[in-house]
Write a structure and sequence with these properties.
With about 250 residues, the protein is mostly helical. Helices cover about 85% and strands about 0% of the residues. Helix 1 runs parallel beside helix 6 (about 85-160), helix 2 packs across helix 6 (about 85-160) and helix 4 packs antiparallel against helix 6 (about 85-160). It starts with a helix and ends with a helix.
Amino acid sequence: MGLQWTAVAIFLYAEIAVIVILCLPFISARRWQSIFKLRIWNFMARFWNKVFLTMIIILIVLFLDAVREVRKYSGKEIGTDAKLQPNMFDHLHMKLFRAQRNLYISGFAVFLWLVMKRLVTLINQLASVSGNTAALQAQAQSANQTAEKYLKDNELLKQTLMEGKGDKATAEGMELLRKEVEKLKEELKTSGDALKKSQSEADVMKKQTEGLAREYDRLLKEHQELQIVLSCMPSSTRPPLTRPACRLWS
């Protein structure tokens, strides 16, 4: 077996091992998805498409080469030389056997490479669907529990009404609401009285301020008149600064 066919055979055995591991029943799809999300796989995901296409091309080229070899040795007819040389017949069959072996190896390698990629994709999809299904089941269970609670409350309410306890409960509730309303009315009345009192005090202060302003104007006027009278007093008794005002007064 040549070097390239040895590499293809090893690659085929590795594919078989990986597919068998992926098909193990005790490893769930969500566990595989968590493994696929590791940092090393995220790093390899950048080159995954290129590696996949490269391997497909290499395996297809080897497969076509194996097909060529099979056609080459299967078309040989045993001639007179083969009859004269019995070893030639065995050699041709050995070449044909090797070509067919290489054909099977490369063909299954291509097939399992496609199967492995598809299997990984299906595992990821199954894990996503399983996660969504679990979330939907949790929501449905919560909705069922809420519905059951509402049904129980409804049945309890119906039972209470049928037993005649509903009117009593309603009356008690109305009495509590009435007391609360009365309390709020009292608080509102108290606030209104306090507001009216504040407004009346503000009016009183306003009137006092107006009275003080009028009194200030009256005192100011009297002060000006006193200054004029003082300026009209005799020169011996008045200051010099009041003489011009006295002329105006005279």
